[in-house]
Amino acid sequence: MLARIGNCAWAIRQAALVGQLAVLGCCGLLAGLLPFVVNDYWVRVGAFVLINIGLASSWNIIGGFAGYASFGHGVFFGLGAFVAAIGIVRFGLPLYVVMLLGGAVSALIALLFTPIFRQRGMYFALSTLALLLIFDNVLQRWTFTRGLRSFDVGWSVQLPYGLHAYYYIFLATVVVLVASVMFLARSRVGYALHALRKDEVLASSIGIRVLRFKVIAFVVSAAWPGVLGAAFAPFLAFVSVQSVLDMRFTLNMILATIFGGAGTIVGPIVGAVALSIIDQFTWGNFLEYHRLIYGVLIVVIITFAPGGLTSIFWTLTRRSTAAGSAPSPGLPAVVKVEA
């Protein structure tokens, strides 16, 4: 009996996952049509939107699923960019190789810094911020990472790819990234992370290996920014500490995730797209008040809808469903028919 119930639950879960992957594939195909219907300016904007979706979805693994807010996650994006720059310029490696290397190096660095998980809350967040500052200083002062010559301050990275090629590279990477997050969320690791976020002490008391699952989440969430950073290096064409280790990359990850809905699969995607639309609208129509309007909108959403835009959507959906199922006024809720 229990085996049948388990098999039924597994079939339902797999069906839901297949449905999610089908929706993701359709969205990917629609996004692939963008370069055919807009000019190069909007293709470039679309490329940055895809990068923001990928970074937010990555941060969501550790910050949303596990509940550990990392304030230095942008360091892995920067490391991936530097790995790509050094690999392409010094060693002539192809793009797909440096993308894999960028993810591997970022994952390894994350693994080395797992002792910071002895801390929680604000102390963990500050430790990850210190990690960003450490690599900012190291990469600026180490001559091997500064450039080919001792007086260089960055890397000029050139590859024979056009704007549309980079757009499709980012699109393919983000589709695979989001698919991996879907698998993770419905795996044993995902359920363990959900338990950790709810109550870490209780999760530990029922046998969940807390440190193991936190490390897995941190390493996976660090690897994907490394992959994206490696693809971003030739797209940007010049890689320096100032251009790829800027704090704004980390802030964008956090804001997009919280704005859309942390701890959900679709939240970071919605947040990244919504913030990009708001940013473009305010920049184009209210240039002098661009940052003011952008900041106020973020504060309003986070204050009145802490669960993000997705929580607003689900609340409205539940209300409409409840209103549709409620009995009409003046009619009895139950009609009893007697023989």
Based on the model shown, name its key terms:
339 residues; mainly alpha; two-stranded antiparallel ribbon; 16 helices; disordered C terminus
The run of helices and strands is: HHHHHHHEHHHHEHHHHH
Distance between the termini: 40 Å
Mean pLDDT, to the nearest integer, reads 86
Trace the largest sheet across and list its strands: 1-2
Query: How many strands, what sense, and barrel or not for the largest sheet?
Result: 2 strands, antiparallel
Number of alpha- plus pi-helical segments: 16
Tell me roughly what share of residues is in helical segments: over 70%
Number of beta strands: 2
Strand proportion: under 5%
**Class inferred from helices and paired strands:** mainly alpha
User: Uncertain segments of ≥5 residues (pLDDT<50)?
Assistant: 8-12, 330-339
Shape: globular
Oligomer: single chain
Q: What is the C-alpha radius of gyration, as a whole number of Å?
A: 23 Å
Give an overview in words:
It is a single chain. With 339 residues, the protein is an all-alpha fold. It has a domain at 43-246. The protein is built from 16 helices and 2 strands. The protein has a two-stranded antiparallel sheet. It is globular. The two termini are 40 Å apart. The relative contact order is 0.15. Residues 8-12 and 330-339 have low confidence and may be disordered.
List the helices and strands and how they pair.
Elements: H1 2-32, H2 34-37, H3 40-65, H4 74-91, H5 95-112, H6 122-141, H7 143-146, E1 155-156, H8 163-185, H9 188-198, H10 200-205, H11 210-236, E2 238-239, H12 241-244, H13 247-260, H14 267-285, H15 290-304, H16 309-325
Antiparallel strand pairs: 1-2
Helix pairs in contact: 1-8, 3-8, 3-11, 3-13, 3-14, 4-5, 4-11, 5-11, 8-11, 9-11, 13-14, 14-15
